[in-house]
Amino acid sequence: MIKEQLTQLAQITDAVFQAKNAELAREVARERDLRKALATLVTDQSDRATAVLDNTDTAMIAGADVRWRTWVEQRRRLINAELAQCRVAQAQCREAAAKAFGRYQAVLSLEENRAVEAKKTAARRSTYTS
User: Fold this and answer.
1) Cβ contacts of residue 65 below 8 Å, gap of 6+?
2) Mean pLDDT by 10 residues, the chain (130 residues)
3) Which residues contact 72 (CB under 8 A, 6 or more apart)?
4) How many domains does the chain have?
5) Most buried among 4, 38, 109, 121, by the most CB within 10 A?
């Protein structure tokens, strides 16, 4: 009976560990996407700065360039704030995954110890004479 319970517990703790790892992977992907969006903004801003050197730029003449730069800065601040939140979430996910992994390893160790004890008991029984 204990063997089946330990096996079930191992399956449960493994499932929890896998779920925590999946959460961490989602947060890592989210960070990658945010960093990509931030890099795109920087590239666009650099490209725009190059285009502004051409004095015939109609967006600059119409004043849209100032509004665009304001939007870029607001967007950058927003992405950086979300990136900070993402890093906090990653740290929490890593901690939860580490705990889940520790629990899983503990159950595996219990299973292994139970198996060793069962073998010892079987060996004692096979050599016992009354």
Assistant:
1) 48, 52, 57, 59
2) 88 96 96 95 80 63 76 94 97 97 95 90 82
3) 41, 44, 45
4) 1
5) 38
